[in-house]
Automatic annotation (TrEMBL):
Name this polypeptide is given: PITH1 protein
GO cellular component: cytoplasm; nucleus
InterPro entries linked to this entry: Galactose-bd-like_sf (IPR008979), PITH1-like (IPR045099), PITH_dom (IPR010400), PITH_dom_sf (IPR037047)
Family: Belongs to the PITHD1 family.
SUPFAM superfamilies noted in UniProt: Galactose-binding domain-like
Bilayer-crossing regions: none
Top-level lineage group: Eukaryota
Domain PITH: 1-118
PROSITE patterns: PITH
Matching Gene3D superfamilies: PITH domain
Length: 137
C-alpha cells in the first residue's frame, strides 16, 4: 500500500495519469485519486475516492488513464493511493506522470500601510534650509 501527496503550487487540472511499475507482481493493480485533501494519511484513504482505476501492467509507462475533467478542475493538492498490487509482498512505483493544465495562483500579499491624518513635523526631519535670494540688476 502506497500513498503519494502531491501539492500543486497553483491551480491544476489533471487530464491524465500514468503509473509505471515493474513487470512482476509488485506492479500496482489499483489507483485511487483524491483531490484537495492536504496532509492526507492512510486513515483518510478509507473514504470514497474522487476517481478509481484498475491498472494494467505497464513497465514502459505507455498507458495513460484519463481523469474525469469535471471532478478534477481547480486542484491544489492531489493524493494518489495504490492500495494493492498483483500479488507481491511489496508494491513498486517507478514513475508517476500527470498530464493536464496548470495555472499560476494569484496570491495577493498582505500590505501594511500607515496613514497620517495630519503630518507630525518631528517625523519629517529636514536638513537646515538656507534661504538665498538672487537679485538681477
Amino acid at each position: 500500500e502506497l500513498l503519494f501527496n502531491v501539492p500543486v503550487t497553483g491551480s491544476g487540472k489533471p487530464e491524465g495519469v500514468i503509473g509505471m511499475g515493474g513487470d512482476d507482481g509488485s506492479h500496482p493493480a489499483e489507483m485511487r485519486l483524491f483531490k484537495n485533501i492536504p496532509h492526507m494519511s492512510f486513515d483518510d484513504a478509507a473514504r470514497e475516492p474522487d476517481q478509481m482505476f484498475n491498472l494494467n501492467r505497464d513497465p514502459t509507462g505507455e498507458l495513460e488513464y484519463p481523469t474525469k475533467i469535471a471532478r478534477f478542475s481547480n486542484v491544489y493538492h492531489l493524493s494518489i493511493h495504490f492500495p494493492k498490487n498483483f500479488g507481491a509482498e511489496t508494491t513498486k512505483i517507478f514513475y508517476i506522470g500527470l498530464k493536464g493544465e496548470w495555472t499560476e495562483a494569484h496570491r495577493h500579499e498582505v500590505t501594511i500601510c500607515n496613514y497620517e491624518a495630519s503630518a507630525n513635523p518631528a517625523d519629517h526631519r529636514l536638513e537646515q534650509v538656507t534661504l538665498q535670494t538672487h537679485f538681477i540688476s
